[in-house]
Design goal:
With about 190 residues, this protein is mainly alpha-helical. It contains six helices and three strands; from the N terminus they run H-H-H-E-H-E-E-H-H.
């Protein structure tokens, strides 16, 4: 005879039911021990059924309590965990940004003649922003190197606004004399070649 497979449904009972069955099994065993309600009256196997039921449903009830405790712990620690995750993301973004900035600053040593001209012109006018033709190859190179950006929008194509990134501008200002001298040297060399 094959047992009815529906008995497995008992394993999905709510915690209050498994706790109640566990408590009932404990009470029956205590009453049997005290001699008030001997389980042997119900048959030879009754005591074993009560013990087995108490163990099974006791384990299920304990599992439910552990699950509830874990869920409560997760609720309590969720804000702290989320804050730590957000901080880790911010730290990662900051690290990536610093790496990009350092890489861009290393490119200051390898600027073309036209790029140096834009740097020197901005330094001479003491302005982080400048205007030039929208399709300037020198400005496109500076943007590609991560040193310059454009605010975008609609502007006159011959007087399109560009700005040096703050980190780049600080490094450029610190090397002001070097870039102005390079620009003068390149202009003088260009004049001699003609």
């Amino acid at each position: 005879m094959i047992p009815d497979p529906k008995w497995i449904d008992a394993l999905s009972l709510p915690a209050r039911v498994t706790g109640g069955i566990t408590s009932a099994c404990i009470v029956l065993l205590l009453l049997d021990k005290a001699g008030v309600l001997p389980l042997s009256v119900f048959g030879l196997i009754a005591w074993h059924i009560v013990v087995a039921s108490g163990v099974i449903f006791g384990c299920l009830f304990t599992g439910s309590l552990v699950d509830l405790a874990v869920k409560q712990w997760q609720i309590v620690t969720k804000p702290r965990r989320l804050a730590a995750e957000r901080q880790a993301i911010r730290d990662e973004k900051t690290t990536e940004r610093k790496e990009r900035e350092e890489q861009a600053l290393r490119r200051l040593d390898y600027l073309s003649e036209e790029e140096i001209h834009y740097v020197a012109a901005s330094l001479s006018s003491n302005s982080q922003s400048f205007q030039t033709w929208v399709n300037s190859s020198g400005v496109a190179s500076l943007i590609g190197k991560g040193l310059v950006y454009s605010p975008g929008g609609e502007h006159h194509r011959d007087h399109y606004p560009f700005s040096f990134c703050d980190f780049a501008w600080d490094a450029i200002v610190a090397r002001r004399d070097e870039f102005i001298e390079k620009d003068k040297t390149l202009k003088a060399t260009k004049g001699v070649r003609r």
